[in-house]
Design a protein that fits this description.
Elements (H helix, E strand, L loop, with lengths): L8 E4 L1 H5 L8 H12 L3 E5 L8 H6 L5 E4 L4 E4 L4 E5 L4 H14 L4 E5 L4 E4 L12 E4 L2 H7 L5 E5 L5 H12 L3 E4 L6 E6 L4 H11 L7 E5 L5 H6 L2 E5 L4 H6 L3 E2 L6 H9 L2
Parallel strand pairs: 1-2, 1-12, 2-3, 7-8, 12-13, 13-14
Antiparallel strand pairs: 3-4, 4-5, 6-7, 6-9, 9-11, 10-11
Length: 269
C-alpha cells in the first residue's frame, strides 16, 4: 500500500471483525468509519450475511457504504437499501454438488440462501437468530425447486468440524463451486465458480479505478482469506482463525477491543 496517503477503500468483514461479540458496532468503531469516509475512503462491508441480516448494522453505521454480501454473491447499497448486483449458483451446478456431496458424505444436510430467505431440507441443523425467513422442506430436491435464486448452497454435518468438512467439500465439488466457511460448526458455504468476497470486491474497485494497493482489509475467518490476500494492506484480527493468522502478517486487536477502529484511527490520523 502507498504509505504516503490513506487508503481509498476500507473493506471489512462483520462478524468476529467489525462487530463486537454481541453483534453491535461500538461508538469508537462508528466514529472511525465516519472519519475514514470523511477522509475520502469508500467503506465496503464484505460478509457472509445476506442483506436482510445487516439492516440493524446499517442503522448503526448511519447507512454508510456498500455491502458485499453472501460471500460475494450479492452487492447491496446501504444508503438506498437496495440490491445492485447478484452472482448466483446455476441450478444444474447446485444439483450436481448436492448429489455428489450426499453420496460421499451420508447424513449431511443442505440449505440454500436465495438472497431473500433460507430454504433448508429436513435434517439441516443450523438456525440463525437474526433471520426469521427460514423455511424447512422435506428434501434437498424441494429446496432447489423452491429457490428463487441460489446465492449460496449450505452443507452441514453434525459429525464434522468445519475445517475437515471444508476439505471434503472442496474435493467433491470444486469444479462446480467455490467452497469456504465462516466459522459455523460443521457448516460449509458454496458459491458459484469464480464468486468470492475478493472477486466481487475486485470488480467493485476496478469500476471505480481503485487499485489493490489502495485498499485496506480486515477479517477473521477462512472466507476472508481471499480478500486479505488481494488487498494492499491486510489485517487479521487477534481473535482470527489459525489459517488467517498464519497467512496474514499484520494484526489488529480483537473485535471486542475495537481492533478495526484502532487501525483506522492510525491510517486516517
Amino acid at each position: 500500500m502507498n504509505t504516503q496517503r490513506p487508503p481509498r477503500l476500507v473493506a471489512t468483514d462483520l462478524d468476529g471483525t467489525l462487530l463486537r461479540s454481541d453483534g453491535t458496532v461500538s461508538a469508537r468503531t462508528r466514529a472511525a468509519l465516519s472519519a475514514a469516509a470523511a477522509g475520502g475512503a469508500e467503506i465496503v462491508f464484505v460478509t457472509a450475511r445476506p442483506p436482510r441480516a445487516i439492516a440493524h448494522i446499517a442503522e448503526q453505521v448511519g447507512h454508510l457504504g456498500t455491502a458485499i454480501c453472501v460471500n460475494g454473491a450479492v452487492t447491496y447499497e446501504l444508503a438506498r437499501e437496495r440490491i445492485v448486483g447478484t452472482r448466483p449458483v446455476a441450478l444444474d451446478a447446485a444439483t450436481r454438488m448436492a448429489e455428489t456431496l450426499a453420496a460421499r458424505l451420508p447424513g449431511v444436510g443442505f440449505a440454500v440462501e436465495t438472497g431473500i430467505r433460507v430454504i433448508a431440507a429436513t435434517g439441516f441443523g443450523p438456525r440463525w437468530d437474526h433471520d426469521h425467513r427460514h423455511v424447512v422442506v422435506p428434501t434437498v430436491s424441494d429446496v432447489l425447486r423452491l429457490a428463487e435464486s441460489i446465492a449460496k448452497l449450505f452443507v452441514w454435518s453434525a459429525d464434522h468440524h468445519a475445517d475437515p468438512l471444508l476439505e471434503l467439500a472442496r474435493a467433491a465439488a470444486a469444479e462446480h463451486g467455490e467452497c469456504t466457511h465462516s466459522g459455523g460448526s460443521g457448516l460449509v458455504e458454496i458459491s458459484a465458480v469464480g464468486v468470492s468476497k475478493a472477486s466481487t470486491l475486485a470488480a467493485y474497485c476496478a469500476a471505480r479505478g481503485i487499485a489493490p494497493d489502495e485498499v485496506v482489509a480486515f477479517g477473521d475467518m477462512p472466507n476472508d482469506l481471499d480478500v486479505l490476500g488481494w488487498a494492499g494492506a491486510a489485517y487479521a484480527m487477534a481473535n482470527a482463525h489459525p489459517a488467517v493468522l498464519a497467512a496474514t502478517p499484520r494484526r489488529a486487536g480483537t473485535n471486542d477491543d475495537d481492533g478495526v477502529a484502532r487501525v483506522l484511527e492510525r491510517l486516517f490520523a
